[in-house]
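Memo to structure team: turn this sequence into structure tokens by end of day. - J.P.
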Amino acid sequence: MLKNLCLATIAVSLVLSAPVLGAIGGNVQAKNPNELVPLQPVRNQFCRALTPAGWTVIDQDDRGTTFSIASPDRSAIATYGIVGVNRGQVAGAYGPQYRTPALLAQFLAASVVGAKTVTVTGMRVFNGMQVMNFAGGNKRGVAIYRIYPLPSDPGGYVISVRIATGASAGEVSTGGAVAASIDCKTAFKAPRGGYAEVHAKSAETGISQRCKTGDCSDADLAGTYNSQLGTGYVHSESGTNYLVDPANDYRETGPEGPGYYRQAGNTLEKLLPGRAD
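Reply from structure team:
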């Protein structure tokens, strides 16, 4: 995985968020009908994320610039990374992969799946983010990235990227939701004016409660794409988060009206849309 993020040399393997359903297909990783997937917090000094049981941190640095988590068998991986690329790298001084954000995203995706290259199977723009679907080796995945100015070098750029990979569509969708939940405190701050794209989109099951009050982060922006993956977050009043498949887990009828419910003993507990944080 990506271990070194100095401007001169970037030895990479990151991960992002979400595939286009038409290209990737599938929903939340296999589960029993009507059984929601509980999510647990995973964190270090700089980063935090929500994952299904058994997922563990497999790579991190000491500055919050990279954070990677894998499923118990490491078949699915979710990664976040933010990289500053200077004008020398853009000019090709350290290899062609830094010349454009798209080439760098493709290079990072190949590093994550352990392949020399990946085949890009789709590109689109969603809510101000670039979404790249890819396949390489025996894995498939999605990379979601966003570009910012590099304050110290107008000829460079900053790229924040979330990558999800897996052997199946379900693994990619679950990994995408995990990647979208990664929130790190880094030297690179939110853009001036915040994340207006989040406010312009309701995306109730993709964002945090904090974002619903107007305080949105890059993770909330990434979470707006969860609906395209067939995933979403809900939470209980006590603050436990769950991963849902909105197409199949939403109930039109329930004891407290339409919504998402969890079986709690002999009763149904209505859950609230979005992450609890």
